[in-house]
Design goal:
Four copies of one chain form a homotetramer.
Chain A: H1 9-19, H2 24-47, H3 50-55, H4 57-81, H5 85-89, H6 92-110, H7 116-123, H8 129-134, H9 138-149, H10 151-176, H11 185-196, H12 209-225, H13 227-242
Helix pairs in contact in A: 1-2, 1-4, 2-4, 4-6, 6-7, 9-13, 10-11, 10-12
């Protein structure tokens, strides 16, 4: 049945550990990688704090290299354990894994203090690695489905919110003028969004009576229409409660597709056996 | 059956393209106009940013004329393609279309830098042109219906919110006095609305212990009663989910009424055939 | 059947006009009084604005007297048209009507610029007169019922919110100390309420990293638990949708009880005929 | 049936008064203790206000001792009335009771103005004593159940919120740089949480156009996804409405377990009779 034959049993075993979370060793690998990811994110964060970076420069430097080497090993293992490495390399997670590992090597080779900005930005991509782990949480799938099905309505609602904000922002720019901080229309629209979403920084605020009256109106509208997305999602949730199909964490070794049903024997994407040796 | 006979087939064709979105050319026209509207709005916004206006004065000037001419052509086409032009000219969109096109000509003829304010205000009316396109989105109709049916309750709720804000505002004016920024009752009511809707700019805030106590009370009330509009809309949404009638985008050539049922043959407004040639 | 006999037909007629809103003249009276109330409130508000009061002193003075005389006439009519005046005089609205009418006379007799504060406070009681009109709005009754039945749960929730705020406030006082504006525990609790209810004035805000961490935690809690009152009211609303009994605006001439069913012939409070002459 | 025999009837009576709220004397005890707790909390709060502490130093001192003695007596009574004192002493409430009573004695013995901070922190633990009383409120149990069953989903949601905040925070740090107050990544994440939860202090806010654009996006996301926890809790509440089992306030004298069903004769925790003498 199988078209491509696995070269060795250990590669199959490796694939199970790295890409799946059903076996004990698979779980240990996942939890281990999760811990390394969290540490690496905390590291990048703390490095950005000036006085900490001065004080613990060498500690950060060494920790950075340890993490980079762990991520490099993980990247290589992921490539050699999968049958069609391209499926992984050009997937979203493959690119994230590569881009968030490279910076340390680039700085080591090119010196790179003049491209510090880009390097830091790349290193922060590690945060997306966390998403790899979230797909194993059943609740998150149900949340995702409820959001996905209420998506079009929410989009229309947010579209309406943005139109209201554009109208309100231009109105406020005409009323308040440049004295009250409503210097131009884009900044007034920014203020409208800050106000309608009930955030209210206070960096810009109306000072004329008419401006305050219009602002009051915008706030009451914002307070009143927050009910709309809530109503949408509420009714969506009540529906999605009923039909939630249990899934497991098996991943196809050929196309890397996850989200197979518990009793699935063949990949629902490429049709090959999920458990063939 | 038909009382007024169309003078030519091309006028009927033109009406279908401009006022409806069922045919491919009708869709192309709508998407084209939508793009021009979005560009024209972006233009008015960016023009209001002082340093951009100085730098790209001529680019803005030329773009403005191109858009004005497109809108003028659209306006003329809309008038000649409809049987009873008055229905369009004196409709909300007809007035918006006219008023948002005129300013460029006025400035060209009268010089008009001294009436810049009014001209800019008129030009911004273009934002309302976007609403013309929204009626074709099915979801937005359902949102509109849910809001319309929960309207009276929301109104009563917002009426109650305003009364609470008036009482709270006057109370805060009496307690805080003019020191804390609560100079007069209108401004104190403005502060109450800012606080109850959980916006909280911070431009005005209580400084006396009693004022802070009353403010805490207002905030907790605002936090507690936000549930009321949500509850109203939620129950409204669950109802409206069930009965949503599919509508199409045909528009009557005599009275310009839209929102006809899919199998409608006569305009439900003026009674004439929708498809007569 | 009737125990107390009305002395004249006009008194009965007057009662119908003033206390009920079923007849055309009753509606005219209600709308008229509503307009006078709104004007009187607007007047007190505008008087509090310093520069307006200086400019339009005499206009305000005359308007004040006109409104006071209208309210005095209304008060007298209410007393003579009802059978048992005590029911009105010692009711909430009777006391509000009296207290909000008196100040103008007091100032006229005693001079009273030294008791301006109390006078203004009393005059503002007029805002409560608006509530008299709200009881005729059917939707407001349904809102009131939904709020009343979800009252105990909302109370327990707000009680929990206050306990969280007390704990969070004291914690922030210990962490931030007096440098960050968290001078004492009451003011820190005030800050906690401002933060948890997502108002966020910004007059006080944490500056230490630990304080900002705890603040982030409080904000996320506040963002997460706002769902609780909403959930309570939502489920309450779905229930109250079903059982809403239509009521009319007849008022008993003996005990002044309102909220009778449409086909009620006897007062459900004192048992006398509602329509006896 | 009973394995351990009560030594005296008064101890059994005492247990009923202190640990249960079914008998009149039990209710009187609970309300009395509740009042003392509220007074003691108010006292610690007011003591933290500098000028009040200077003015009413002796009044605070005496009140502190009166409350400490009452709490000491309560603590001793709780220990001698229960069969297995260890169950109480090492329970959460037992530790809270002890720690919040000790500070006054410690200051009296050791002088302790140099450990004022720790003492005040311990004394504030009294707030947790209030929770002892809340378990008797039926509504609070239903609230707790609804929150408990929607807990996992809320956790996943808040986890997603935190990831969004980390990504948004790092992005804002890269865009705004150190000029706009986004000095380092942790502080930028703090700002993201302040913004996404719609609190919006305004201590930090974007000043570059791109930063304001991203901020607008974060705010609209925060405004849109607040619907998610609400939808979760709403659907949970509708469910929990149906199945609420009435409970009473009996407490087992052996293991101190509460929350027994009304007709329970044996403790569901340790299996002994609830009413044995």
């Amino acid at each position: 049945m199988s078209k491509t034959k696995p070269k060795s049993a250990w590669r199959h075993k490796l694939h199970e550990i790295i890409y799946e979370a059903d076996t004990p060793s698979g779980k240990v690998f996942d939890v281990g990688i999760l811990i390394v990811i969290v540490i690496s994110i905390a590291l990048v964060m703390l490095e950005s704090v000036g006085h900490l970076n001065l004080k613990y420069y060498w500690e950060f430097y060494i920790a950075e290299w340890v993490i980079t080497i762990i991520f490099t090993i993980e990247y290589i293992l992921r490539i050699i354990s999968i049958k069609k490495p391209k499926h992984y390399i050009f997937s979203f997670y493959g690119i994230v894994d590569l881009l968030s590992t490279l910076p340390t090597y680039i700085v080591f080779i090119f010196g790179g203090h003049n491209l510090l900005f880009a390097v830091r930005a790349l290193r922060l991509l590690r945060i997306f690695r966390i998403l790899k782990v979230t797909r194993y949480i059943g609740e998150s799938n149900r949340l995702k489905n409820a959001l996905k099905s209420s998506g079009p309505k929410i989009t229309v609602f947010l579209f309406a919110v943005i139109i209201i904000c554009i109208i309100a922002g231009t109105l406020m720019h005409l009323i308040e003028g440049e004295a009250g901080g409503f210097d131009n229309i884009p900044v007034s629209i920014y203020w409208s969004i800050v106000t309608l979403t009930t955030v209210g920084f206070g960096d810009i605020h109306p000072i004329t009576p008419l401006g305050q009256f219009i602002a009051s109106f915008i706030m009451i509208v914002g307070y009143g229409i927050i009910a709309v997305p809530t109503g949408i999602v509420s009714s969506e949730f009540t529906k999605s409660e009923k039909d939630s199909i249990p899934k497991n964490t098996q991943a196809c070794r050929f196309c890397n597709e996850t989200e197979h049903l518990d009793d699935a024997e063949f990949c629902h994407n490429c049709g090959r056996r999920l458990d063939e040796k």
